[in-house]
Each structure stands twice: as C-alpha cells, then as structure tokens.
Design goal:
- It contains two helices and four strands; from the N terminus they run ββααββ.
- By secondary structure, the protein is of the alpha+beta class.
- Strands 1-2-3-4 form a four-stranded antiparallel sheet, covered by helices on one side.
- A hairpin with a 2-residue loop joins strand 3 and strand 4.
C-alpha cells in the first residue's frame, strides 16, 4: 500500500456552538492541514497521485474557507465548525477529485489535531 501526503495552511475565524468557554466567542486560527491519499496501484511513472495535482486541489479547497467566518458557510449549516468538522469538510471536498482519499488532518494549534478518515465502502 502506498500513501502520499500534502500540507498547506489557511486562516479563518469561527466560534463553537453549544460550548461553554473561551471558544464560544469569535476567534481565529492559522490552521495547518495535511491530506493523504492511499492506494496499491501506481501509474506508468510509478506515481500514486502527482504531488502537484494533490497540492493544487488542496489549495483550491482551502481557498473556499481561507479568511472566512466558518460559521457563515453553508456547508456547516448552523453546526459548530469545529476542527473535526473542518477536517471532514476538507476530506469531502478532496474526495470529489481523489477517490483514494485516506484522511485529512487539521491542526488548530501546534499541539492539537483533528483527523477525518475514510470509512469502509
């Protein structure tokens, strides 16, 4: 099994709903994002997915949320745009292009990460 990853960053504001504490108030993060694709078959160049294509798609997806108030985005539909849900959003968007998506990981701080994994089909 092969796996490749790409990393990027975005900045955005959000606040958590149904939460008591500082994060219930509007605040922002500079999120680090890692996405991974996984598969057993390589192409004729022995490449699973071209890094350029993976990075280009990741940056396209992050442009949808970069410098936005995540609570205002239709995708979250009035739900808390937690790191977990942001990871799911990124995964869902990336999976539209790459059916071999493995996971997306979102760090809201250098020590706090949420991941969303592909479930079995």
């Amino acid at each position: 099994m092969f796996e490749i990853q790409a990393e990027s960053m975005f900045s955005a504001a959000h606040h958590l709903l149904n939460y008591e504490g500082k994060c219930e108030h509007q605040h922002g993060h500079n999120w680090k994002v890692v996405v991974a694709v996984r598969g057993e078959k390589l192409d004729k160049s022995n490449i699973l997915v071209d890094f350029k294509a993976l990075k280009r798609e990741l940056n396209r997806v992050l442009d949808l949320i970069d410098h936005k108030d995540l609570n205002e985005l239709e995708y979250f539909g009035g739900e808390s745009p937690s790191s977990e849900m942001i990871a799911k959003f990124i995964f869902d968007e990336m999976a539209k292009t790459f059916d071999c998506m493995c996971f997306s990981a979102v760090w809201e701080t250098p020590t706090s990460c949420a991941k969303y994994y592909r479930t079995e089909k």
